[in-house]
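User: Hello! My lab partner asked me to get a predicted holo structure for this protein. The small molecule is zinc ion, SMILES included with the sequence. Please write out the C-alpha coordinates.
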Amino acid sequence: MRWLRACAVLGLLAAPACAASNDPPLLINGTVVAPDRVIPNGWVAIRDGKILSISDTKPVLPTARTLTTRDIIFPGFVDLHNHPLYGVFPRWKPPKVYPNRYEWRADAGYWQAIQTPELKLVTTHFCDMDAYVELKALAGGTTSLLGIYRPADTAVISPCVSGLVRNLDWASGFHGTGMGQERAGNILGVRPSDLKLSEETLARIKTGPMDLIAVHLGEGQRNDADSRAEFARLKDLDLLTPNTAVIHGVALSESDFREIKNAGAAFIWSPRSNFELYGETADIAAAIRQKVTMALAPDWSPTGSTNMLAEIGYAKSVIDRQFKGLISPQQLFEMATLVPARIAHIDDKVSSLKPGLYADLFLLRGDTAKPFDALAGAAPQDVTLTLVNGVPIYGSRDYLDALGAAPEAVTMCNQAKAINTQAMPGKFADIIARLTLALAGEKLTLAGLAECR
Ligand SMILES: [Zn+2]
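Assistant: Hello! Below are the C-alpha coordinates for the protein in complex with zinc ion.
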Protein backbone atom coordinates (compact mmCIF):
# COMPACT_ATOMS: atom_id res chain seq x y z
CA MET A 1 0.00 0.00 0.00
CA ARG A 2 2.00 2.90 -1.30
CA TRP A 3 -0.20 5.57 0.25
CA LEU A 4 0.50 4.14 3.66
CA ARG A 5 4.23 4.38 3.20
CA ALA A 6 3.92 7.93 1.89
CA CYS A 7 1.76 8.89 4.84
CA ALA A 8 4.16 7.18 7.25
CA VAL A 9 6.97 9.33 5.91
CA LEU A 10 4.83 12.37 6.60
CA GLY A 11 4.04 11.09 10.08
CA LEU A 12 0.38 10.89 9.17
CA LEU A 13 -0.04 7.16 8.94
CA ALA A 14 -3.60 7.02 10.19
CA ALA A 15 -4.77 10.42 8.99
CA PRO A 16 -8.05 10.41 7.07
CA ALA A 17 -6.48 12.77 4.54
CA CYS A 18 -3.99 10.05 3.66
CA ALA A 19 -6.12 8.76 0.82
CA ALA A 20 -5.54 5.43 -0.78
CA SER A 21 -4.02 7.26 -3.73
CA ASN A 22 -2.35 4.99 -6.30
CA ASP A 23 -3.92 1.96 -4.71
CA PRO A 24 -6.07 -0.16 -7.01
CA PRO A 25 -9.78 0.69 -6.97
CA LEU A 26 -12.02 -1.20 -4.62
CA LEU A 27 -15.37 -2.81 -5.40
CA ILE A 28 -17.73 -3.74 -2.58
CA ASN A 29 -20.87 -5.73 -3.24
CA GLY A 30 -23.91 -5.93 -0.98
CA THR A 31 -27.26 -4.27 -0.30
CA VAL A 32 -26.43 -0.63 -0.94
CA VAL A 33 -28.33 2.03 1.03
CA ALA A 34 -28.13 4.81 -1.55
CA PRO A 35 -29.68 8.27 -0.93
CA ASP A 36 -32.81 7.64 -3.00
CA ARG A 37 -33.17 3.87 -2.95
CA VAL A 38 -31.90 0.60 -1.57
CA ILE A 39 -30.06 -1.47 -4.19
CA PRO A 40 -30.18 -5.22 -3.53
CA ASN A 41 -26.98 -6.92 -4.65
CA GLY A 42 -25.52 -3.56 -5.66
CA TRP A 43 -21.99 -2.25 -5.98
CA VAL A 44 -19.95 0.56 -4.48
CA ALA A 45 -16.80 1.44 -6.43
CA ILE A 46 -14.07 3.34 -4.57
CA ARG A 47 -10.99 5.03 -5.97
CA ASP A 48 -8.50 7.42 -4.35
CA GLY A 49 -10.52 7.52 -1.15
CA LYS A 50 -13.75 8.56 -2.82
CA ILE A 51 -16.87 6.88 -4.11
CA LEU A 52 -16.49 6.43 -7.84
CA SER A 53 -19.91 4.93 -8.57
CA ILE A 54 -22.98 3.27 -7.10
CA SER A 55 -24.58 0.70 -9.39
CA ASP A 56 -26.88 -2.28 -9.80
CA THR A 57 -24.31 -4.17 -11.83
CA LYS A 58 -20.64 -4.80 -11.29
CA PRO A 59 -18.56 -1.98 -12.76
CA VAL A 60 -15.79 -2.85 -15.16
CA LEU A 61 -12.60 -1.99 -13.31
CA PRO A 62 -10.03 -4.64 -14.25
CA THR A 63 -7.46 -3.77 -11.60
CA ALA A 64 -9.95 -3.47 -8.74
CA ARG A 65 -9.89 -5.47 -5.53
CA THR A 66 -13.34 -6.99 -5.02
CA LEU A 67 -15.23 -7.79 -1.84
CA THR A 68 -18.43 -9.77 -2.32
CA THR A 69 -20.78 -9.84 0.67
CA ARG A 70 -24.35 -10.47 1.73
CA ASP A 71 -24.22 -7.47 4.05
CA ILE A 72 -25.88 -4.06 4.07
CA ILE A 73 -23.69 -1.12 3.07
CA PHE A 74 -24.44 2.14 4.92
CA PRO A 75 -22.71 5.52 4.85
CA GLY A 76 -20.69 6.12 8.02
CA PHE A 77 -22.26 7.94 10.95
CA VAL A 78 -21.54 11.57 11.77
CA ASP A 79 -21.39 11.95 15.57
CA LEU A 80 -21.77 15.60 16.63
CA HIS A 81 -22.12 15.05 20.36
CA ASN A 82 -19.52 13.01 22.12
CA HIS A 83 -16.80 13.26 24.74
CA PRO A 84 -14.85 10.35 23.33
CA LEU A 85 -11.87 10.31 25.68
CA TYR A 86 -14.14 9.14 28.50
CA GLY A 87 -14.72 5.95 26.51
CA VAL A 88 -11.88 4.15 28.27
CA PHE A 89 -13.74 4.26 31.59
CA PRO A 90 -16.32 1.78 32.79
CA ARG A 91 -19.94 2.92 32.89
CA TRP A 92 -20.84 5.19 35.76
CA LYS A 93 -24.02 4.23 37.55
CA PRO A 94 -25.51 7.47 38.89
CA PRO A 95 -26.77 6.88 42.46
CA LYS A 96 -29.84 9.03 41.75
CA VAL A 97 -31.35 11.26 39.09
CA TYR A 98 -30.10 14.84 39.15
CA PRO A 99 -31.95 18.11 38.49
CA ASN A 100 -29.18 19.29 36.19
CA ARG A 101 -25.65 18.60 35.07
CA TYR A 102 -24.14 21.03 37.56
CA GLU A 103 -25.24 18.70 40.35
CA TRP A 104 -23.75 15.45 39.08
CA ARG A 105 -20.60 17.20 37.95
CA ALA A 106 -20.13 18.30 41.56
CA ASP A 107 -20.82 14.81 42.97
CA ALA A 108 -17.81 13.37 44.83
CA GLY A 109 -18.70 9.87 43.61
CA TYR A 110 -18.52 11.02 40.01
CA TRP A 111 -15.14 12.65 40.58
CA GLN A 112 -13.80 9.50 42.18
CA ALA A 113 -15.07 7.15 39.50
CA ILE A 114 -14.51 9.21 36.37
CA GLN A 115 -13.31 12.80 36.47
CA THR A 116 -10.22 12.58 38.70
CA PRO A 117 -8.72 9.57 36.89
CA GLU A 118 -9.70 11.09 33.53
CA LEU A 119 -7.82 14.31 34.19
CA LYS A 120 -4.80 12.27 35.23
CA LEU A 121 -4.78 9.75 32.41
CA VAL A 122 -5.40 12.24 29.65
CA THR A 123 -2.09 13.92 30.45
CA THR A 124 -0.14 10.65 30.46
CA HIS A 125 -1.97 8.44 27.95
CA PHE A 126 -3.69 10.80 25.53
CA CYS A 127 -2.66 9.02 22.33
CA ASP A 128 -3.55 5.55 23.62
CA MET A 129 -6.91 6.84 24.86
CA ASP A 130 -7.55 8.54 21.54
CA ALA A 131 -6.76 5.41 19.51
CA TYR A 132 -8.89 3.19 21.75
CA VAL A 133 -11.97 5.40 21.78
CA GLU A 134 -11.79 6.14 18.07
CA LEU A 135 -11.70 2.42 17.44
CA LYS A 136 -14.83 2.10 19.61
CA ALA A 137 -16.51 4.68 17.41
CA LEU A 138 -15.42 2.98 14.18
CA ALA A 139 -16.60 -0.40 15.44
CA GLY A 140 -20.07 1.15 15.67
CA GLY A 141 -20.00 2.63 12.17
CA THR A 142 -18.93 6.18 13.11
CA THR A 143 -16.56 7.75 10.61
CA SER A 144 -16.82 11.45 11.59
CA LEU A 145 -16.63 12.57 15.20
CA LEU A 146 -16.70 15.78 17.23
CA GLY A 147 -15.46 16.20 20.79
CA ILE A 148 -11.90 15.01 21.38
CA TYR A 149 -10.41 17.72 23.54
CA ARG A 150 -6.94 18.96 24.21
CA PRO A 151 -5.55 18.22 27.69
CA ALA A 152 -5.47 21.40 29.75
CA ASP A 153 -1.73 21.17 30.36
CA THR A 154 -0.79 21.14 26.67
CA ALA A 155 -0.57 24.12 24.37
CA VAL A 156 -1.34 22.16 21.22
CA ILE A 157 -3.14 18.90 20.74
CA SER A 158 -0.98 15.92 19.86
CA PRO A 159 -0.84 15.05 16.13
CA CYS A 160 -1.91 11.55 17.13
CA VAL A 161 -5.49 12.86 17.11
CA SER A 162 -5.11 12.98 13.35
CA GLY A 163 -6.12 9.44 12.64
CA LEU A 164 -8.75 6.75 12.30
CA VAL A 165 -12.08 8.65 12.35
CA ARG A 166 -12.37 12.16 11.00
CA ASN A 167 -12.07 14.51 13.96
CA LEU A 168 -14.28 17.37 12.85
CA ASP A 169 -12.80 19.79 15.38
CA TRP A 170 -9.14 18.89 14.80
CA ALA A 171 -8.33 16.85 11.72
CA SER A 172 -11.20 16.05 9.42
CA GLY A 173 -9.10 15.58 6.31
CA PHE A 174 -11.44 17.98 4.51
CA HIS A 175 -9.01 20.89 4.76
CA GLY A 176 -5.65 19.29 3.97
CA THR A 177 -3.42 17.26 6.24
CA GLY A 178 -2.61 20.11 8.64
CA MET A 179 -4.42 20.78 11.88
CA GLY A 180 -6.27 23.83 13.11
CA GLN A 181 -8.18 24.36 9.88
CA GLU A 182 -11.49 22.94 11.06
CA ARG A 183 -14.81 24.72 11.04
CA ALA A 184 -16.65 22.95 13.85
CA GLY A 185 -16.33 23.25 17.61
CA ASN A 186 -17.89 22.47 20.96
CA ILE A 187 -19.00 24.75 23.75
CA LEU A 188 -19.54 22.96 27.01
CA GLY A 189 -22.23 25.33 28.19
CA VAL A 190 -23.34 28.95 28.44
CA ARG A 191 -22.56 29.58 32.09
CA PRO A 192 -19.53 31.84 32.51
CA SER A 193 -17.57 28.99 34.08
CA ASP A 194 -18.18 26.77 31.05
CA LEU A 195 -17.58 29.47 28.48
CA LYS A 196 -14.26 30.16 30.15
CA LEU A 197 -13.25 26.63 29.20
CA SER A 198 -13.89 27.45 25.56
CA GLU A 199 -12.19 30.81 25.07
CA GLU A 200 -10.31 29.46 22.09
CA THR A 201 -13.51 28.34 20.48
CA LEU A 202 -15.16 31.66 21.18
CA ALA A 203 -12.23 33.46 19.60
CA ARG A 204 -12.63 31.35 16.51
CA ILE A 205 -16.30 32.27 16.33
CA LYS A 206 -15.36 35.93 16.34
CA THR A 207 -12.32 35.81 14.07
CA GLY A 208 -12.89 32.98 11.68
CA PRO A 209 -15.68 31.26 9.85
CA MET A 210 -17.33 28.42 11.70
CA ASP A 211 -19.83 26.02 10.20
CA LEU A 212 -20.95 24.56 13.50
CA ILE A 213 -20.98 25.51 17.15
CA ALA A 214 -22.41 22.71 19.27
CA VAL A 215 -23.60 23.98 22.66
CA HIS A 216 -24.70 22.00 25.72
CA LEU A 217 -27.92 23.63 26.80
CA GLY A 218 -30.85 22.95 29.06
CA GLU A 219 -29.20 19.78 30.32
CA GLY A 220 -31.43 19.10 33.29
CA GLN A 221 -34.96 18.26 34.20
CA ARG A 222 -37.75 20.16 32.50
CA ASN A 223 -38.76 22.02 35.66
CA ASP A 224 -35.20 22.90 36.66
CA ALA A 225 -34.81 26.68 36.80
CA ASP A 226 -31.05 26.69 36.09
CA SER A 227 -31.47 24.58 32.98
CA ARG A 228 -34.43 26.58 31.75
CA ALA A 229 -32.56 29.88 32.13
CA GLU A 230 -29.80 28.79 29.78
CA PHE A 231 -31.74 29.31 26.59
CA ALA A 232 -32.17 33.03 27.38
CA ARG A 233 -28.48 33.25 28.12
CA LEU A 234 -27.63 31.65 24.78
CA LYS A 235 -29.69 34.33 23.04
CA ASP A 236 -28.11 37.08 25.15
CA LEU A 237 -24.71 35.89 23.95
CA ASP A 238 -25.89 36.08 20.31
CA LEU A 239 -25.12 32.39 19.99
CA LEU A 240 -28.47 31.26 18.62
CA THR A 241 -27.37 31.29 14.99
CA PRO A 242 -27.93 29.19 11.85
CA ASN A 243 -24.59 27.52 12.68
CA THR A 244 -25.63 26.62 16.23
CA ALA A 245 -26.61 23.12 17.29
CA VAL A 246 -28.22 22.85 20.72
CA ILE A 247 -27.20 19.69 22.56
CA HIS A 248 -29.51 17.91 25.05
CA GLY A 249 -32.25 20.56 25.44
CA VAL A 250 -34.13 18.43 27.99
CA ALA A 251 -35.46 21.58 29.67
CA LEU A 252 -36.53 23.31 26.44
CA SER A 253 -40.17 24.21 25.93
CA GLU A 254 -42.08 24.06 22.67
CA SER A 255 -41.71 27.82 22.22
CA ASP A 256 -37.93 27.42 22.71
CA PHE A 257 -37.93 24.83 19.92
CA ARG A 258 -39.92 27.27 17.77
CA GLU A 259 -37.21 29.88 18.27
CA ILE A 260 -34.51 27.34 17.42
CA LYS A 261 -36.35 26.57 14.19
CA ASN A 262 -36.87 30.24 13.37
CA ALA A 263 -33.17 30.97 13.95
CA GLY A 264 -32.20 28.18 11.56
CA ALA A 265 -30.38 26.42 14.39
CA ALA A 266 -30.46 22.66 15.00
CA PHE A 267 -30.94 20.23 17.86
CA ILE A 268 -29.00 17.11 18.84
CA TRP A 269 -30.86 14.48 20.81
CA SER A 270 -28.98 12.19 23.25
CA PRO A 271 -31.69 10.18 24.98
CA ARG A 272 -29.77 7.53 26.88
CA SER A 273 -27.59 9.91 28.84
CA ASN A 274 -30.67 12.08 29.53
CA PHE A 275 -32.62 9.21 31.05
CA GLU A 276 -29.72 7.90 33.11
CA LEU A 277 -28.82 11.30 34.58
CA TYR A 278 -32.15 13.14 34.72
CA GLY A 279 -34.81 10.46 34.41
CA GLU A 280 -36.32 12.09 31.32
CA THR A 281 -35.39 13.32 27.87
CA ALA A 282 -36.13 16.25 25.60
CA ASP A 283 -39.64 16.86 24.31
CA ILE A 284 -38.87 15.53 20.86
CA ALA A 285 -42.57 15.51 19.97
CA ALA A 286 -42.54 19.31 20.37
CA ALA A 287 -39.30 19.58 18.40
CA ILE A 288 -40.84 17.58 15.57
CA ARG A 289 -44.05 19.64 15.64
CA GLN A 290 -41.88 22.73 15.24
CA LYS A 291 -39.99 21.06 12.38
CA VAL A 292 -36.64 21.49 14.11
CA THR A 293 -33.67 19.88 12.35
CA MET A 294 -32.81 17.05 14.73
CA ALA A 295 -29.78 14.77 14.83
CA LEU A 296 -28.96 11.89 17.16
CA ALA A 297 -25.70 11.35 19.08
CA PRO A 298 -24.57 9.30 22.08
CA ASP A 299 -23.00 11.97 24.39
CA TRP A 300 -20.44 9.68 26.00
CA SER A 301 -19.87 6.14 27.18
CA PRO A 302 -20.17 6.53 30.99
CA THR A 303 -23.93 7.33 30.95
CA GLY A 304 -24.79 7.44 27.25
CA SER A 305 -24.18 4.87 24.53
CA THR A 306 -20.87 3.40 23.46
CA ASN A 307 -21.28 4.75 19.94
CA MET A 308 -23.81 5.84 17.31
CA LEU A 309 -24.98 2.32 16.50
CA ALA A 310 -25.82 1.67 20.15
CA GLU A 311 -27.58 5.04 20.50
CA ILE A 312 -29.77 4.28 17.48
CA GLY A 313 -30.82 1.06 19.19
CA TYR A 314 -31.53 2.91 22.41
CA ALA A 315 -33.48 5.67 20.62
CA LYS A 316 -35.59 3.01 18.93
CA SER A 317 -36.51 1.58 22.34
CA VAL A 318 -37.45 5.05 23.64
CA ILE A 319 -39.64 5.70 20.63
CA ASP A 320 -41.35 2.33 20.99
CA ARG A 321 -41.96 2.99 24.68
CA GLN A 322 -42.78 6.67 24.83
CA PHE A 323 -43.19 8.19 21.38
CA LYS A 324 -44.93 5.41 19.49
CA GLY A 325 -44.25 5.70 15.75
CA LEU A 326 -42.96 9.26 16.01
CA ILE A 327 -39.62 8.47 14.37
CA SER A 328 -39.10 5.55 11.98
CA PRO A 329 -35.91 3.45 11.84
CA GLN A 330 -35.12 5.08 8.49
CA GLN A 331 -35.43 8.52 10.09
CA LEU A 332 -33.11 7.40 12.90
CA PHE A 333 -30.61 6.39 10.23
CA GLU A 334 -30.93 9.84 8.63
CA MET A 335 -30.57 11.52 12.05
CA ALA A 336 -27.20 9.76 12.35
CA THR A 337 -25.91 10.44 8.84
CA LEU A 338 -27.30 13.06 6.46
CA VAL A 339 -28.93 15.31 9.07
CA PRO A 340 -25.79 15.81 11.23
CA ALA A 341 -23.72 16.18 8.07
CA ARG A 342 -26.02 18.98 6.93
CA ILE A 343 -25.80 20.57 10.38
CA ALA A 344 -21.98 20.52 10.13
CA HIS A 345 -22.07 21.59 6.45
CA ILE A 346 -20.21 18.47 5.37
CA ASP A 347 -23.00 16.71 3.47
CA ASP A 348 -21.14 17.47 0.23
CA LYS A 349 -18.24 15.41 1.58
CA VAL A 350 -19.64 12.48 3.60
CA SER A 351 -22.84 10.87 4.93
CA SER A 352 -24.32 9.53 1.68
CA LEU A 353 -23.34 6.76 -0.66
CA LYS A 354 -23.07 8.77 -3.82
CA PRO A 355 -20.31 9.37 -6.36
CA GLY A 356 -17.83 12.11 -5.54
CA LEU A 357 -18.16 11.85 -1.77
CA TYR A 358 -15.48 10.39 0.47
CA ALA A 359 -15.69 6.64 0.88
CA ASP A 360 -16.63 6.65 4.58
CA LEU A 361 -18.94 3.71 5.06
CA PHE A 362 -19.61 0.54 6.98
CA LEU A 363 -21.08 -2.89 6.38
CA LEU A 364 -23.64 -4.54 8.62
CA ARG A 365 -24.80 -8.14 8.78
CA GLY A 366 -28.59 -8.26 8.97
CA ASP A 367 -31.91 -8.65 7.13
CA THR A 368 -31.19 -7.07 3.75
CA ALA A 369 -34.94 -6.80 3.05
CA LYS A 370 -35.29 -4.42 6.03
CA PRO A 371 -31.99 -2.54 6.25
CA PHE A 372 -33.21 0.19 8.61
CA ASP A 373 -34.82 -2.27 10.99
CA ALA A 374 -31.59 -4.26 10.88
CA LEU A 375 -29.68 -1.12 11.79
CA ALA A 376 -31.97 -0.22 14.70
CA GLY A 377 -31.78 -3.78 16.06
CA ALA A 378 -28.09 -4.44 15.41
CA ALA A 379 -25.70 -5.93 17.95
CA PRO A 380 -22.11 -4.64 18.16
CA GLN A 381 -20.68 -7.71 16.46
CA ASP A 382 -22.95 -7.20 13.42
CA VAL A 383 -20.64 -4.51 12.01
CA THR A 384 -18.45 -6.39 9.55
CA LEU A 385 -16.35 -3.62 8.03
CA THR A 386 -15.72 0.11 8.47
CA LEU A 387 -13.81 2.25 6.00
CA VAL A 388 -12.68 5.85 6.26
CA ASN A 389 -11.43 7.52 3.11
CA GLY A 390 -11.67 4.16 1.36
CA VAL A 391 -9.27 2.60 3.88
CA PRO A 392 -10.57 -0.46 5.73
CA ILE A 393 -9.82 -0.08 9.43
CA TYR A 394 -12.01 -2.52 11.37
CA GLY A 395 -14.04 -5.56 10.47
CA SER A 396 -14.17 -9.27 9.80
CA ARG A 397 -10.80 -10.90 9.38
CA ASP A 398 -11.71 -12.44 6.02
CA TYR A 399 -12.86 -9.06 4.69
CA LEU A 400 -9.65 -7.36 5.75
CA ASP A 401 -7.66 -10.22 4.25
CA ALA A 402 -9.57 -9.86 0.98
CA LEU A 403 -8.78 -6.16 0.90
CA GLY A 404 -5.07 -6.69 1.40
CA ALA A 405 -4.96 -5.23 4.90
CA ALA A 406 -2.62 -6.46 7.64
CA PRO A 407 -5.08 -7.62 10.28
CA GLU A 408 -4.54 -7.78 14.02
CA ALA A 409 -7.06 -9.94 15.83
CA VAL A 410 -9.50 -8.33 18.24
CA THR A 411 -12.59 -9.70 19.95
CA MET A 412 -15.95 -7.97 19.73
CA CYS A 413 -18.61 -9.48 21.98
CA ASN A 414 -17.09 -12.96 21.77
CA GLN A 415 -16.72 -12.78 18.00
CA ALA A 416 -13.40 -12.65 16.22
CA LYS A 417 -12.82 -9.38 14.42
CA ALA A 418 -9.72 -7.63 13.20
CA ILE A 419 -8.11 -4.24 12.85
CA ASN A 420 -5.97 -3.09 9.95
CA THR A 421 -2.61 -2.53 11.63
CA GLN A 422 -1.50 -0.41 8.68
CA ALA A 423 -4.11 2.16 9.67
CA MET A 424 -3.40 2.05 13.40
CA PRO A 425 -0.79 4.12 15.24
CA GLY A 426 0.56 0.98 16.90
CA LYS A 427 -0.29 -2.56 17.86
CA PHE A 428 -3.77 -2.49 19.38
CA ALA A 429 -2.90 -5.16 21.95
CA ASP A 430 -0.12 -2.89 23.22
CA ILE A 431 -2.52 0.05 23.46
CA ILE A 432 -4.95 -2.09 25.45
CA ALA A 433 -2.15 -3.34 27.73
CA ARG A 434 -0.93 0.17 28.52
CA LEU A 435 -4.42 1.48 29.20
CA THR A 436 -5.31 -1.54 31.34
CA LEU A 437 -2.23 -0.95 33.46
CA ALA A 438 -2.86 2.78 33.78
CA LEU A 439 -6.49 2.23 34.78
CA ALA A 440 -5.51 -0.48 37.26
CA GLY A 441 -3.39 2.18 38.94
CA GLU A 442 -6.66 4.05 39.52
CA LYS A 443 -8.40 0.85 40.64
CA LEU A 444 -10.45 0.86 37.45
CA THR A 445 -10.90 -1.54 34.57
CA LEU A 446 -10.71 -0.63 30.90
CA ALA A 447 -14.17 -0.32 29.35
CA GLY A 448 -14.98 -2.90 26.68
CA LEU A 449 -15.11 -2.01 23.00
CA ALA A 450 -18.91 -2.26 23.25
CA GLU A 451 -21.71 -3.31 25.56
CA CYS A 452 -22.51 -6.88 24.62
CA ARG A 453 -25.96 -8.40 24.79
ZN1 LIG B 1 -22.19 16.16 26.30
